[in-house]
Amino acid sequence: IILAFRQRLYAAVMVLKPGDCKLPAHFKLADASIPNLLQGLESGQFTTEQLVKTYVARIHDVQPKVHAVSEINPDCVALALELDKERAQGQTRGLLHGLPILLKDVFGGHGVMNTTVGFSGLAGAKYSSEATVLRRLRDAGAVVHAHTSMTEWLNIRASKNAPNGWSPVSGQSLGIFCQNQDPGGSSTGSGIGAALGLGAAALGTETAGSIASPARTCGVVGLKPTATLVSRQGIFMGSQWQDSVGILARSVLDAAYVLTAISGEFEAAAFGTRNFAKIQGLMDYVLLHVINTKPFVGEKFEEALDVLQSLGAVIVDDATFPEYSLDVLEKYKDIWNVSLMVDFRNMADMNNFLGTLVENPHGLNSIEDVIEYTKRVADEKFEAHGADDLELASQLGRECDINPQAYEESRSLRLRMGMEIGKLLDNYNCSLLVTPSWTDTTASLGGNPQISLPLPALPEDFPVKLRGNGMVADGPNIP
Known about the structure:
Helix content is 35%, strand content 13%. The protein is built from 16 helices and 17 strands. The radius of gyration is 22 Å and the shape is globular. InterPro entries: Amidase_dom (IPR023631), AS_sf (IPR036928). This is Amidase domain-containing protein. Residues 51-443 form the Amidase domain.
């Protein structure tokens, strides 16, 4: 179920001794909420050191099967001990003090850890500044104990050929509900990590569906805030117009805790800050937009609507976007993605992401350099996957440098379609839009906030549906 709103192991080695990782026997880490963890830390049931070591041990246990993590922070135990010392002295930094948090591999400047965007050519690169989100996590008392795996280059390398969750850095990540399950992407490892309890919560990013997709396949909550509510300084973005930093967690409350800690400041100054973990109650009117879906999903969606109504929501049925539809996408297919691809090329080039590197081991200064490296280096598996999206972004970027008309038309169209959720809510005088399937395109285009909530898993007799690459898209026991 999707709710959209108006407003806008690289080589780190951790040696654990027997007994190092023990938490109280009754404490089930995989099911623990952030309030549970904070209560346990405050009451002295366990320490941050124990939490970190237990999470790291759990990562090592599941990593061979799911490839959820790209690197473990070799300093995480030392950081945990520092936080424990502060707590013992009666000092806590903030809302997340002592909590281990997973981080998608796009946040630059994290000390000894790599930030690769899933691309082997960025191993060993160093960044000129630290991502603002990292500072906010540190100020809140969190410890980043691992980077999560992701689809290489935000799935803007070879989206038609490379599977979700594949990168030369982490290999092929896999879903947790059946053998060879498509894990979604591009925030793949963050979804898996949240589902398996590899951290208190995980951060991801989304250009178009990169939080909603793994949230669905992993059966967790995926929160994509308004595009600028969380600072994007110091991260790799696919589009400055669409990208959001968000959270994958086991509950809405957990996601709210993390959002409270990382939101506000810089780009988000116009929105102010508030404690999202303390918000209670529902908006008065909920707009229902039904997308053709499986009968089982429709049935469970209706049950979810009944819950909303029982909490006081008024459901307005049969909503229709003023203009946006699949027909519009078909009509404008030749220009629809032009601006997105050009923006990606510009974000990657020397004046932006690659230009922020103070150490650039392979001298990569442009998307053309990235393409050449991808073709040359065996780990990138160019023969198997190609680099169609990178090549298209390069081509369109050069063309639009000379004649920007196609870019301007595409950007204008996407801006117009991005206003559709706001218009829809205004037309029906509603506060939020609820659908049984993700609204990644419309929500992302307008920078709208969106939250993905898992419906029950598909039944045992549900037929298995395979993707063209042979991975399982749908089947029994998959949310």
